[in-house]
Amino acid sequence: MKTRYFYLIGFGALMLFDTLTQVSFKLASAQAGEFIPKIEWLLVVLHNPWIYVAAIGYIGSFIAWMTLLKRAPVGPAFAASHLAIVFVLVISVAYFGEHLTVMQVVGALSIILGIVFLSLSEARQSHD
Fold first, then answer.
1. Per-residue pLDDT tens over the stretch 56-110
2. What is the pLDDT of residue 56?
3. Minimal CA–CA distance to 120: which of 86, 76, 80, 70?
4. pLDDT in tens, 14-52
5. Number of other residues whose CB lies within 10 A of the CB of residue 62
6. pTM of the complete model
7. Which pairs with CB-CB distance under 8 Å and at least 24 residues apart come from 4-11?
8. Is there a contact between 77 and 10 (Cβ–Cβ < 8 Å)?
9. Residue 32 CB-half CA count within 13 A
10. What is the pLDDT of residue 93?
11. Domain boundaries, the chain
């Protein structure tokens, strides 16, 4: 039972930090405007708090990922780490008003199905 809680908390933290990072980059880029290869644009980015939230998200993701890899099987863990992409898609629609394409929906469903199949396979192998 402890292992189950470890996975739930660990993958939850990984998803939270990965999603936080991507959304923070989106917010920072929206406020910074179009990329201009000038120092003024870089200064605008460096004065944006969302860029630092993204950095904190990267650090949190790294710590969560390294902790998970100590105990979790690599295949399902790697697949599950891509679930953040699905969360970012959902937030992009709900918060930023973006529209999903058919290919994005197919991709998100593929990620979810891949995680389910890998988890079922891993569970079956551990019982054998």
1. 999 999 999 898 888 877 776 777 778 888 999 999 999 989 999 999 999 999 9
2. 96
3. 76
4. 999 999 999 999 999 888 888 888 898 889 889 999 999
5. 12
6. 0.80
7. 6/71, 7/68, 7/72, 10/64, 10/67, 10/68, 10/72, 11/68, 11/77, 11/80, 11/83
8. no
9. 24
10. 93
11. 2-127
CA dist., res. 11 & res. 46, Å (int): 30
- pLDDT classification of 5: cutoffs 50, 70, 90: confident
Q: Within a 10 A sphere around the Cβ of 18, how many other Cβ atoms?
A: 23
* Closest listed residue to residue 85, CA positions, set 111, 103, 65: 111
Amino acid making up residue 46:
L
- Which tokens go with 32? 């910074």
State how far the alpha carbon of 65 is from the alpha carbons of 3, 28, 105, in Å. Answer: 16, 24, 26
Q: Could you tell me the two tokens for 113?
A: 């199905």
Place of tokens 């709900």: 94
Instruction: Quote the CA–CA distance of 84 and 100 in Å, as a whole number.
Output: 16
